[in-house]
Amino acid sequence: MGRRTTRQRGHRARWTVLATLTTLGGAIASVAAGSAPASAARAPDGKSPITIVTEKTAWGPILALSSGWTVYRFVKDGNNRSTCSGACLQAWPAVILAKGQKEPDGKGVSHLGFIVRAGGAHQVTYEGIPLYLFIGDKKPGQITGNIKDKFGQWWVVNPATPKSVPHEAGGTTTTAGGSGVAY
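Above: the chain's sequence. Below: its structure in token form.
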């Protein structure tokens, strides 16, 4: 066992530094790749039934999960059709029914349904509009996803006028172009 020489201690120190840098590099790479922090909104776990509720906010009444997470709609989506996939779904996780759940529950919310995504998952819809979460929301009740990003335009869902464009916090909304689709 004896004494370690300086050379042996230096070799071990280099491996420790290399392992630390590798771990740090992996963490940086996962952040750069767009991985969500643990506290960010993420797709439902598939085990707990999905319940959609109405929350009162500065944007007026909006749809949310019963856990408080705000749900959004993607303007590019069609009626009962999702166009968000790949990297889009990493930033905007689809609201998916729990395994064995036949339909979404609505606490005071009707017109809920689902579409079948590629791969067979059942994505919750409201009046045919696919619903999503946003990883930019860091806690229940946050509304940071009323944005236009590299994927397109996203809005909260007002249950009274689901295809309307909210203009500013304060609850005012208008329907774009009379077609019910925001541009």
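The first strand starts at residue 51 and ends at 57.
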